[in-house]
Amino acid sequence: MKLVPISSADSAGICARLTVPVLAFGGILMAITQTVVVPLLPDLPRLTGSSPGAVSWLVTATLLAGAVLTPVLGRAGDMYGKRRVLLAALGLMTVGSTLCALTSDIRLLIAARALQGAAAAVVPLSISILRDELPPERTGSAVALMSSTVGIGAALGLPLAALIVQYADWHAMFWATSALGAIGLALAWWTVRESPVRSPGRFDTWGALGLAAGLVCLLLAVSQGGQWGWGSAPVLGLFGGAVVVLAVWCRQQLRSKQPLVDLRLAAGRRVALPHVAALLAGFAFYANSLVTAQLVQAPVASGYGLGLSIVATGLCLLPNGVIMLVLSPVSARVSTAYGARVTLAIGAGVIALGYVVRIVDSRHLWVIILGAAVVSVGTTFAYSALPTLILRAVPLAQTASANGVNVLMRTIGQSVCSAAVAAVLVRHTTVLDGVHVPTLPGYRLAFAMAGTVALVACAAAVAIPSDPSPDDPAADRRPARTPARDGPGRKKLTP
Fold it and tell me: pTM here?
């Protein structure tokens, strides 16, 4: 049998076809990495010999690192190469997973989880790469899929982690994410081409440090306010520090010739309103999985709980990921036909409808799954539309940094949601066998709050100006390409 060697053109064609699924795999892996630790949280104080407060930092460290690094790595990608920074983010995530697998020391675990937070930049970097590499007719569906990977990975991560924790040593969970991370890194190195679109200049180090300090103060206060007390001196000091630092940072960005974030561009309605909608959509989306998981695990004696195990809870959330995977191309077609702002408005409205279902009946499992599924449908439409709106509103050289800010706004929305839901449920509890358990009216109030936020997101979507004409300088324009070497002996293809 004679072996026929694969030519460089064939290899480039294979890589081009694999770019979208490989980048989507990276986004799903990022979301899985963020969620796999959740089933472990109740047992980690015993397993690591640490306090529950210290264990909570395994979530907080990833949140803070991701929030800080997403806009910073997005800007670095625009300046130094999106493929290069994408590989660095995947590499840090893989290293963090390996360190978690090798230790039980809570200090090392927290540091390793912070490294994993770098993976939050994978989605905005990938979206920017897709805009640069794909023809316009394929960009919409690919970007919609990429944006939906956040929800897909979150839905897959919980049951996967629960199964591993239940039937294997807890370190096996991190070995699994390490192996998946190594596979994703290798595939991205092989298939993803470096984009020729760059924004040359000097990196705004002071801007990055200022943004990092402001975000750490803000998100630390939001994430720890429930434990430390919302009126405590540390929380109030952090909020005050965030206001002062971010105010100084905004002044510095406006005066900088090459800012980390172009605030003048971000202040325009075509960019600012999608950022606001991302904040609100992140809030509305996160309440779905957060509250559903608690509700179905509540004891049967509560009168509404189903007493499900962690594994069963994860399986209840699994259809949400399937929905987002299946509907992402549908949302892209809606955006193509009617505009991304219409898709965003529809998505936010459907999210609100899903919470109406949750308020009407949260006692029967099939209704709970139905309501969560409706929210996931709306989330798919909303999340797929957001990056499209940003891509059409910013210049080519700022796509990664602008989408990084948009993803950051989603993260802030999710953090605020977590704190708000916790505050609502803490104020609506009943004592059951000596344990404080949230009441059903408390859950319904949380659903009503998330649904109201979704309606505000719908209003923000309606207020977004329509897409510009082709003569608009911010319209999507792709630079002419010349063949250039990239990767192991490959040439870029000129479209």
Answer: 0.84
